[in-house]
From TrEMBL:
Transmembrane segments: none annotated. This is Flagellar motor switch protein FliM. GO terms for molecular function: cytoskeletal motor activity. Pfam families: FliM, FliMN_C. It is a peripheral membrane protein. It comes from the Bacteria. It comes from Paenibacillus lautus. The lineage of its organism: Bacteria, Bacillati, Bacillota, Bacilli, Bacillales. Keywords: Bacterial flagellum, Cell membrane, Cell projection, Chemotaxis, Cilium, Flagellar rotation, Flagellum, Membrane. InterPro entries: CheC-like_sf, Flag_FliM, FliN-like_C, SpoA-like_sf. Gene3D superfamilies: CheC-like, SpoA-like. Its main location: other. The keyword Cell membrane applies. GO terms for biological process: bacterial-type flagellum-dependent swarming motility; positive chemotaxis.
Length: 332
């Protein structure tokens, strides 16, 4: 942040220069000298503030989609919010999570590399309890999951990645796929310990149980698409979405779509015995008089009223009236 001098400080500085206490040339030399800033190579900052803002925006949508998904699956109150998006070494992330937790390791083509969705045991066991008919309360002591519990967790989180795919659509079409589910962080090594990761922390509440869901995305995975995470790129994408050429192309495709059109003379109901007793020459009474127009339907919607006729020895229908949208349908 740039320091702003007060009027008194400016006056004191001018007085010092005029009296010779300060040398103007020395001040110029200080300005031209290179300023040294300390840099920690173990905590390399590879995501700019612009990238962090974009990741925050994407995963706020992810949190909303995930809230809807888990609410429907668990049939209870679920609230998920983005708490923080930060960058830190992968090793620091591993040391910050519990020794017994739920680690969903996944890939998201076309991105190359593996990512992790870490779910705190309190949240994971509350989900299990709810799915198995309980009230959604996590046990006091956390133990390793059984084979059945592991399969249930894999199924619910495999479908949860659809929410991640939806959230990333504005930037890139990805196809997340769960590869493995681990419970011990020491057995999970997706990148080198010093590799920088983006850590998206989501505060989660299921009923009365609270905990964290952490999404770990290594920098090497996002590096090929870093340019798409800039605010400038977001502006361009939103602008491109409404260009006239694309609107015209969409109109042309819609205009070529085929719809069934049916001209209905009328409707009649017969019993099975009456239907089986029909023979050549029998007359079937319809539900409307002869002078009433035909109901012309596009798909299942009544759109026109018409009259029957012929053109060059072919059966035809003449449109006499257009049914206005919202008006009462023609009495069949």
């Amino acid at each position: 942040m740039v320091d702003v001098l007060s009027q008194n400080e400016i006056d004191a500085l001018l007085a010092a220069l005029s009296s010779g206490e300060m040398d103007a040339e020395e001040l110029k030399k200080e300005e031209t000298q290179k300023k040294i800033r300390s840099y920690d190579f173990k905590r390399a900052l590879r995501f700019s503030k612009d990238h962090i803002r974009s990741l925050t925006r994407i995963h706020e949508n992810f949190a909303r989609y995930l809230t809807t998904y888990f609410s429907a699956q668990l049939r209870t109150f679920v609230q998920i919010n983005v708490v923080q998006v930060e960058q830190l070494p992968y090793d620091e992330f591993i040391r910050s999570i519990p020794k017994m937790t739920v680690l969903n390791i996944f890939e998201a083509e076309p991105l190359v590399g593996r990512m992790v969705l870490e779910v705190h045991p309190n949240i994971a066991y509350a989900m299990l309890d709810r799915l198995l008919g309980g009230t959604g309360i996590a046990p006091s002591s956390i133990s390793s999951m059984t084979e059945i519990e592991t399969i249930i967790m894999e199924r619910i989180f495999s479908r949860a990645f659809d929410s991640l795919q939806e959230a990333w659509k504005t930037v890139l079409d990805i196809s997340p796929r769960l590869e493995a589910l681990e419970t011990n962080p020491q057995f999970m090594q997706i990148v080198s310990p010093n590799e920088t990761i983006a850590l998206i922390s989501l505060s989660t509440k299921i009923g009365d149980t609270t905990g964290m869901i952490n999404l770990c995305i290594p920098h090497v995975v996002l590096e090929p698409i870093m340019s798409k995470l800039s605010a400038h790129q977001w502006f361009i994408s939103e602008k491109k979405a409404s260009v006239p050429e694309e609107v015209d192309a969409l109109k042309q495709r819609v205009s070529k779509a085929k719809l069934p059109i049916v001209a209905e003379l009328g409707v009649s109901q017969l019993t099975v015995s009456e239907f089986l007793g029909l023979s050549v020459g029998d007359v079937i009474s319809l539900n409307k008089p002869m002078h009433d127009g035909l109901s012309i339907k596009v798909g299942d919607k009544l759109k026109f009223i018409g009259s029957p006729g012929t053109i060059k020895d072919r059966v035809a229908v003449q449109i006499d009236e257009i049914v206005i949208e919202g008006a009462e349908e023609f009495d069949e």
